[in-house]
Structure formats: C-alpha cells, structure tokens
C-alpha cells in the first residue's frame, strides 16, 4: 500500500467531491483525510486528499483514470507520493538564522525535503554546507546581475529544484525569474512593512516603541515584498527590552514562520488563488512522514 496526496483545483460547481471520491473508491483507494475550500468570491474550488492506494497503482495510472473527471470539470489534478521528498535550494546572504534552522529541521526529519544546494552571494557558509553534505555555490552579485542570475538558473536546472527558499537572501531577483518560477520561490521578512524599510528595521521599530514583532513568509513576485502571503506570526514586546532583544526575538519569529511555510509547500497543502494563499491543515501522518 502506498500513501498518496491528491490536489484538486477548478471552478466551483456541484458534484466535485462526489465525483473525485467515487473515482478513488473505484480504484480501491481509501481516503484518510480530506480538506476543501470553495471561494465564493473568486468562484474557485480547492481540495486536498490524503489517501491509501491499496493496489499500488501509483500516481501515473491514477492520473490516467481521472481523465474523464478532469475533462468534465476542467479540473487541475496532481498526485504526489507522500514519501517523495521535495527538492529545494536555499539562498542566503549574511544573516544565517533561517539557514541554520532549516538545515536542523531537515536533519532531525521535521522537514520532508531534500536540500539540493545552498547558494550565497558571500562565501561565509561553505563549511556549514559541507558539514551537512549539501553542495555550496558561491555566486557573487556584481554590477552584472544577469551573469549571477544565469548561474543561479543553471544550479536550479542541474539540481531539479522544485522550490527556492530565500533564507534571508538580500538580493532582488529579476522579474523574468520571478515569472518563470511563480509560486515556487518563498521569501521571509519582518512584518513591519511598509514601515521601517531599509537597514536595521528592528532598531527603527524599537525607537518607535512598537509592541508587536512579527514575520511574513510569502511567494516572490516582481512586486517587491508584495507576493501572496503564506504564513505569519507575531510576538509581544515591551519597553523593557532593548533594540538587541528585538533583533533576537525577530530572528526566532522569522525562522519559525519560514519553516512553517516551507513545510506547508513541501506537503502540497498550498493553493494560490489570485493574490491569496489557501493553506490546508496538516493531515494524519503528514508530520511522521517527514522522517
């Protein structure tokens, strides 16, 4: 028996759940968890199903058996093996807290991914990458940004990466790359935006006496820091804490929010609906499957 995930998206209409569940039943598949959302504003329907493929037909055969349903509902269907780990590339500049956190989660089995490469515009983390047996690529960004991005594209192609994670990578990606990998690049930043832009945002916030510190993980688009939001969190702070405390607290929130966003994406729990992100909760076995 094989544990699979089915992702479905189409125009909202009657009979979708019945048709999909009946087709799975006819193929001797046992549904263990189902999440669905019908967006009445956009008219789009989204569904994620965890199921057991009791006859081990596999994604390719099941996808073929869904041909009629896909045609009837103009439906996008994707089958994924739960045990198949998504390949991703981590990109980092100077701040390393998110990089360390993701590597650790991968190491202990809390993140079901294969880290195919680490890319940086600085050479600081080559030893860390070697320690985790991850290929490291030093790609400096000079005045000729096109050359650097071409090297980045080459790494993505060579590794077959399905997701790019900007783990505090402080360079702007081109609009062409953002469009080519739409929905496959995740970024993390503090949640003060559009306030406190530029250098030392936490110190700026401290000077203004903010009472909440947060972080936002989102998909990257050509509009800087305005892509569809995947995950957010906040934590309270007070006047008794220093600017350095704010930075430390901010690092923790950023790392946790980014990890949750990457986990949701790697488990195929995310659907992009216009400029919104639908994130379904983890189902049974989603966390134990990470090991």
Describe this structure in a few short sentences:
By secondary structure, the protein is α/β, with parallel strands linked by helices. Helices cover 33% and strands 31% of the residues.
Compile the SSE list and pairings:
Blueprint: E1 2-11, H1 16-26, E2 29-39, E3 44-53, H2 58-65, H3 67-73, E4 76-81, E5 86-92, H4 97-108, E6 113-120, H5 126-131, E7 136-138, H6 145-159, E8 163-166, H7 175-180, E9 185-190, H8 201-208, E10 212-219, E11 229-236, H9 243-266, E12 270-273, E13 276-279
Parallel strand pairs: 5-6, 5-8, 6-7, 8-9
Antiparallel strand pairs: 1-3, 1-4, 2-3, 9-10, 10-11, 12-13
Key terms:
about 290 residues, alpha/beta, Alpha-Beta Plaits, Rossmann fold, 2 domains, 7-stranded mixed beta sheet, 4-stranded antiparallel beta sheet, globular
How much beta, percentage-wise?
Answer: 25-35%
The CATH superfamily of the largest domain turns out to be Formyl transferase, N-terminal domain
What is the count of DSSP helices, taking H or I runs of 4+ residues?
9
Main sheet summary: 7 strands, mixed
CATH class of the largest domain: Alpha Beta
- Lateral arrangement of strands in the main beta sheet: 7-6-5-8-9-10-11
* N-to-C SSE string, H for helix and E for strand: EHEEHHEEHEHEHEHEHEEHEE
Question: What is the CATH topology descriptor of the largest domain?
Answer: Rossmann fold
What gap, in angstroms, lies between the N and C termini?
18 Å
């Amino acid at each position: 028996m094989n544990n699979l995930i089915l992702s479905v998206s189409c125009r909202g209409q009657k009979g979708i759940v019945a048709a999909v569940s009946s087709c799975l039943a006819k193929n001797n598949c046992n549904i263990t968890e189902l999440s669905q959302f019908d967006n009445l504003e956009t008219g789009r329907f989204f569904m994620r199903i965890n199921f057991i493929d009791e006859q081990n037909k596999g994604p390719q055969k099941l996808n073929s058996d869904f041909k009629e349903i896909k045609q009837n509902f103009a439906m996008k269907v994707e089958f994924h093996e739960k045990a198949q780990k998504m390949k991703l590339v981590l990109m980092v500049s100077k701040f390393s807290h998110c990089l360390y956190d993701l590597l650790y989660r991968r190491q202990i089995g809390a993140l079901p991914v294969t880290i195919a490469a680490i890319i940086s515009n600085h050479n600081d983390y080559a030893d860390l990458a070697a320690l985790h047996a991850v290929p490291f690529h030093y790609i400096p960004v000079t005045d000729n940004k096109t050359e650097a991005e071409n090297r980045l594209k080459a790494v993505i192609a060579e590794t077959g990466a399905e997701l790019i994670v900007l783990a505090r990578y402080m360079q702007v990606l081109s609009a062409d790359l953002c469009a080519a990998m739409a929905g496959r690049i995740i970024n993390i930043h503090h949640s003060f935006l559009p306030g406190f832009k530029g250098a030392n945002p936490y110190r700026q916030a401290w000077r203004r006496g903010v009472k909440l510190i947060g972080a936002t993980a989102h998909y990257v688009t050509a509009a800087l820091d305005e892509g569809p939001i995947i995950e957010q969190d906040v934590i309270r702070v007070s006047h008794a804490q220093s600017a350095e405390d704010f930075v430390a607290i901010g690092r923790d929130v950023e790392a946790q929010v980014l990890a949750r966003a990457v986990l949701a994406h790697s488990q195929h729990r995310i659907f992009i609906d216009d400029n919104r992100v639908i994130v379904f909760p983890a189902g049974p076995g989603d966390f134990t499957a990470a090991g």
